[in-house]
Design brief:
The chain is α/β, with parallel strands linked by helices. It is built from five helices and twelve strands. Helix 2 runs parallel beside helix 3 and helix 2 packs parallel to helix 5.
């Protein structure tokens, strides 16, 4: 089924459902891909599906049994100029939940979040996930529970002892300007384990991908 298009059609789907096909989906299957067969997914499950002859409805078939590779990881991040790349990479890495955080040095606050959700959906279709990560409304740094979160720490020296992140399910990445002194103090006081990202200075979107990968190990 590698060459069959994968389409996200919502979280509440099951075998036997008949779901109205959007104009975009009908055009994509019928005109672009020239097929009426598809794989649809949502809510952690994946199904075979068929676009009816009229091109108006999707008929949901059998559950494929494909295991959802989504991981129980939440990414907290300060919006950056290339938030689209960050969302794309985090989705491909299997992050379940994405939470934008407004820090003292956050400068990219005016993000088109509808577009970011579309990017997450397309990345989920491409990366063989059975679900699309939730993208929540932005929160303030001061509102985060820092007790059980690892954070990408640009102060951390390369080669330092790797922190124990066995029970950590959340990771925090700061903005291009880094965390402020007061934010570092809050993280340190909460006992949040720092993650070293290596010898070089990384763009924020790549730092997020590496931090997620280390927590997921």
């Amino acid at each position: 089924m590698k060459n069959i298009p994968r389409i996200f059609i919502g979280d509440d789907i099951k075998t036997g459902m008949i779901i109205p096909a959007s104009r975009e989906i009908a055009h994509y299957l019928g005109r672009v891909m020239r097929t009426h067969n598809a794989i649809v997914f949502g809510g952690g499950h994946e199904y075979t599906a068929t676009l009816d002859d009229a091109g108006k409805n999707i008929i949901v078939g059998a559950d494929t049994g494909h295991t959802d590779p989504t991981r129980d990881i939440t990414l907290y991040f300060a919006p950056v100029k290339r938030t689209d790349d960050l969302i794309n990479m985090a989705t491909q890495l299997g992050v379940r939940r994405i939470v934008p955080v407004i820090t003292e040095h956050t400068v990219a606050e005016h993000i088109n979040w509808d577009r970011m959700r579309k990017i997450a959906t397309e990345a989920s279709e491409q990366s063989n996930r059975n679900s699309v990560p939730e993208i929540t409304p932005p929160v303030k740094f001061s509102d985060i529970d820092l007790a059980h979160i690892a954070f990408a720490d640009e102060r951390a020296a390369h080669g330092m002892a790797r922190p124990n992140t066995t029970n950590i399910k959340s990771v925090l990445v700061g903005p291009e300007g880094g965390f402020s002194d007061s934010e570092f103090a809050a993280l340190d006081n909460a006992g949040a384990p720092p993650i070293s990202l290596g010898k070089t200075i990384l763009r924020a979107e790549l730092a997020a991908a590496i931090a997620v990968s280390r927590v997921a190990e």
